[in-house]
Design goal:
InterPro entries: DUF1759 (IPR005312)
Number of strands: 2
Structural class: mainly alpha
Pfam families: DUF1759 (PF03564)
Radius of gyration: 24 Å
Order of helices and strands: HEEHHHHHH
Mean pLDDT: 79
Length: 176
């Protein structure tokens, strides 16, 4: 049984290494082999100008497009413009889509939406402006919890000590 499990684990490890693009050395055949993997497509949601969504969009865009050395600046510019909607799209509409203007377009977006203090303030404002619940139901309480948790986790990701905000927010559920 132990030999069977060892054989299955070795086979599974070999399959995993093949799927992850690992270079391995086969002792029995004394050969070097390299395997690659086709990673799943990363889906980027369009950016519509909500400042509190910039961090997620910006980081995903940077890691999947901007840091991709196989893409030219014109390709990066086309991708960036393709993901912009509403206000951000209008903000850069007058800039020609060329390799030379990619950095300018990207900088405009980062300057307008990537200000950490603005992002923090947007999350705090959203928490302060949550509609109080006068007649609690499981559904309303669940939605309130999810929204609060989402905002608090975003603030933590931005390095904020969320414990400092506990006295600032008015009660959102009536105690009556």
């Amino acid at each position: 049984m132990e030999a069977f499990l060892h054989g299955r684990l070795s086979q599974s490890a070999n399959n995993v290494s093949q799927n992850l693009g690992v270079t391995s050395f086969n002792n029995s055949a004394s050969e070097l082999r390299t395997n690659t993997i086709n990673l799943p497509m990363i889906k980027l949601e369009p950016f519509r100008g909500h400042v509190e969504e910039w961090q997620c969009f910006g980081e995903r865009f940077k890691s999947s497009i901007d840091d991709n050395s196989s893409l030219t600046n014109i390709d990066k510019h086309v991708f960036l413009r393709g993901y912009l909607q509403d206000e951000p799209k209008r903000l850069v509409a007058g800039i020609s889509v060329t390799a030379n203007t990619y950095e300018t377009t990207n900088k405009i977006m980062i300057d307008k939406y990537g200000n950490k203090n603005r992002i923090i303030q947007a999350h705090v404002d959203a928490l302060e402006n949550l509609t109080p619940i006068h007649t609690p139901t499981p559904s309303l309480l669940s939605n309130l919890y999810i929204e609060c948790n989402r905002r608090i986790q975003a603030l933590r990701a931005l390095g904020e000590n969320v414990e400092n905000y506990s006295r600032v927010f008015p009660p959102k559920v009536d105690k009556n």
